[in-house]
Automatic annotation (TrEMBL):
Naturally occurring in which organism (per UniProt): Lacihabitans lacunae
Span of domain F5/8 type C: 544-698
UniProt KW Acetylation keyword: no
Enzyme nomenclature, EC number: 3.2.1.51
Alphabetical list of Gene3D superfamilies matching this protein: Galactose-binding domain-like, Glycosidases
Family, per entry: Belongs to the glycosyl hydrolase 29 family.
Name this protein carries in UniProt: alpha-L-fucosidase
Alphabetized SMART domains for the sequence: Alpha_L_fucos (SM00812)
Length: 698
């Protein structure tokens, strides 16, 4: 049949179907046709997992590096207290559905005794060289009812053949070992970092490969699927795999998020983030991020484990945006997850449980602007029943529709969860949410895509009705689930900062909580000054104390306190032309100034004489800036920028592991100028990085 005939015939069938539909002739109403592309069974099962974990451990855990070079001695690998059951227990208690393990990271070191290399646990002291960590974790996952996944780095900085065709055979041999000997594997992860410098069996050189062709992904994928028919493949390079990277490791995906890409062509960052509305391949997004700034364990990050508000944010920005969340635990050299990581991830689980404890749609009466063929199989109740398989459906030619929930008594809520039955394709292009507040409708959200799951956050609202308006769709809209919640406010002590101009800003972790503060040293309460926006202060020293307050249940957070030195309004950094220099006195710990002039003199002019009794230095807080942390310094003062007096010199002890504020005090002295001389840095090179410099006055 030619295309025109086919088109006319399907139009005719649709017309007949519509007539029969409207007259209710069909007793058995046909289900809507899928809108292609749709997920396959493996992708569907994977999407339903929603949240699972990554575990990073390798030889570079013992050298405190982000990546291993490939020349690390296997003898350094000795996680003496290793207990994969601890990882599995934590993942299970955290509500995760599986664990993906770095069986081989870029270093090439194998955490299972691969028979194709000597560079593995079999030459380490761990379990006297008889251990197999992949097996131990596979068994622990089984015991805890978790799925098990494998990260096998395509890039291997140890292997002598990396870059040559022989390496592909080696890589596939290892894949075969991993996908054959350890039971069912739900996901395999082929990292996109590929090629560069490495040990390469002693060659110590830079090897480049063509990411598109070198691994012959087509045949590598075939091998994977033959060995593990239920697997999903993640790949950030080469041929399109089953899942896509979202273009960032910061823990979010686009609000507009299509689970589609085109099967060929480049995928720029914007597409990774948002997918492609009319893409011809189902390639959903997985949000991979670490519970700490980095993927591997570094003691210096012990104070930087993501807390509950940050993890909740990540959850809403991943699972709540039609993605999955792959959250990483860096394993300590002793083989365990750090207690802070455990504490925070379990508190995060608790917070999710509380947020989604009571689904308010249970007592709602649902009605819809239309129901497919007026059939009870597809009526609006299907969106609020407990059956994830059933769904509310509209007629074939519909592009917009409304579903209303009516409540016997007004409900108070701040979260809205909505799902499409993606087995029939992702359809909704745009929607709004309205609430009937004291008799009139008010729009509370205007959004684009839904997909497998979308969760919206908005200010707490009390309403008698809620209306989902689907305003545009690729094909007739279908909704399988609607849930409405009142999530408690998460109260954390607010963050207080003071900028160079002396203005104070106080931030709460929850936009709905109220913030109260004091400036006289007294304990703040809900009767203290209410924070509205940043406020100016005098130029002297000030103490700010603040609390976050939840007016709904009148609970308060712990108190946060900051003692600010004299304002830096008139301060000048002398002799540096770079605009970023002001970052070192802007009061913002996350902005910094980097230079490549070590040993360097940094001179600050206060504008007038001050009596000072110490100074403080905060290194650049970016994870990549570790080598620029100043370790050795000299500190001078002067009244006239000519005669300098050395008042302190030495080393900032343990600064590499603990890159927080360094405080140095001395007997009070009068000065208008200070000079910090950076003599040496962690990286022993010319780069020094500074987030903040401050002084201590008498
Ligand atoms: C990145 C790697 O280079 C990191 O080390 C980590 O494994 C992360 C999951 O992927 O591309």
């Amino acid at each position: 049949m030619d295309k025109t005939n086919h088109f006319l015939r399907s139009r005719k069938l649709l017309f007949i179907f519509t007539i029969l539909c409207s007259t209710g002739v069909f007793a058995q109403v046909s289900a809507p046709q899928p809108v292609l592309p749709i997920p396959d069974a493996n992708q569907l099962g994977w999407q339903q997992m929603e949240y699972y974990s990554f575990v990073h451990l390798s030889v570079n855990t013992y050298t405190d590096m982000a990546w291993g070079f490939g020349n690390e001695d296997p003898q350094i690998f000795n996680p003496t207290e290793l207990d994969c059951r601890q990882w599995a227990r934590i993942a299970k208690e955290a509500g995760m559905k599986g664990i993906i393990f770095t069986a081989k990271h870029h270093s090439g070191f194998c955490l299972w005794p691969s028979k194709y290399t000597e560079y593995s646990v079999k030459n380490s002291p761990w379990r006297d060289g008889k251990g197999d960590m992949v097996r131990e974790l596979a068994e622990a996952c089984k015991e805890y009812g978790l799925k098990f996944g494998i990260y096998l780095s395509p890039w291997d900085r140890n292997h002598p053949d990396y870059g040559k065709p022989e390496y592909i055979t080696y890589f596939r041999n290892q894949l075969t070992e991993l996908l054959t000997n350890y039971g069912e594997i739900f996901e395999v992860w082929f990292d996109g970092a590929n090629g560069g410098t490495g040990y390469y069996g002693g060659a110590n050189e830079n090897r480049k490969i063509d990411r598109e062709t070198y691994y012959d992904w087509k045949n590598t994928y075939k091998l994977v699927r033959d060995l593990q028919p239920n697997i999903v493949i993640w790949n950030d390079g080469g041929d399109r795999a089953d899942l896509r990277w979202v273009g960032t490791e910061a823990g979010y995906i686009g609000e507009t998020n299509w689970s589609l890409l085109d099967s060929t062509g480049d995928v720029p960052e914007d597409m990774l983030r948002h997918g492609v509305e009319n893409g011809n391949a189902w390639v959903p997004g997985e949000v991979n991020t670490s519970i700490r700034p980095e993927w591997f364990y570094h003691p210096k990050e012990d104070g930087r484990v993501k807390n509950v508000p940050q993890l909740m944010d990540t959850y809403y920005n991943s699972v709540g945006r039609n993605g999955t969340l792959l959250l990483n635990f860096p394993i300590m050299p002793n083989g365990l997850i750090h207690p802070t990581d455990e504490k925070n991830v379990l508190a995060f689980a608790e917070a999710r449980k509380e947020a989604f404890a009571n689904n308010l749609t249970k007592n709602a009466i649902a009605s819809a602007s239309e129901v497919r063929c007026k059939s009870s199989t597809f009526n609006s109740l299907m969106a609020v029943d407990d059956d994830p398989e059933s769904f509310w459906a509209t007629n074939d030619n519909t592009k917009d529709a409304t579903l209303t929930l009516r409540f016997a008594k007004p409900i108070t809520f701040n979260r809205f969860l909505v799902q499409e039955p993606i087995q029939l394709g992702q359809r909704v292009k745009s929607f709004t949410l309205e609430a009937k507040i004291q008799g009139s409708w008010k729009e509370i959200a205007k959004e684009t895509t839904i997909g497998y799951k979308r969760i919206l956050r908005f200010p707490t609202t009390t309403a008698t009705e809620i209306r989902l308006n689907i305003t545009d769709a690729k094909a007739c809209p279908l909704i399988s689930n609607l849930e409405v919640y009142l999530a408690p406010i998460i109260l954390f002590p607010p963050i207080i900062s003071r900028n160079q101009a002396g203005e104070v800003q106080i931030k709460s972790s929850d936009s709905e909580s109220e913030v109260y503060y004091t400036l006289d040293g007294s304990l703040p309460s809900s009767k203290s000054s209410k924070y509205q926006r940043w406020f100016p202060t005098h130029d002297g020293k000030i103490t700010v104390k603040a609390i976050a307050y939840d007016p709904t249940n009148q609970s308060i957070s712990e108190v946060s306190e900051e003692n600010f030195e004299i304002s830096r309004k008139k301060w000048k950094v002398l002799g540096v032309a770079d605009d970023n220099i002001l970052n070192i006195i802007d009061g913002d710990e996350f902005t910094s100034w980097q230079n490549d002039k070590v040993p360097i003199d940094l001179i600050i002019d206060f504008g007038k004489l001050e009596t000072i009794s110490g100074f403080r230095y905060l290194p650049d807080q970016h994870w990549w800036a570790e080598t620029s942390i100043i370790t050795q310094y000299q500190f001078f003062i002067s009244e006239n920028n000519l005669d300098w007096k050395l008042v302190s010199e030495g080393e900032f002890s343990n600064i590499k592991n603990n890159p927080t504020w360094q405080v140095n005090v001395f007997n009070p002295l009068t000065a208008r100028y200070i000079k910090l001389k950076a003599l040496k840095t962690v990286g022993n090179n010319n780069n020094a990085g500074i987030a903040e410099i401050d002084i201590i006055t008498k």
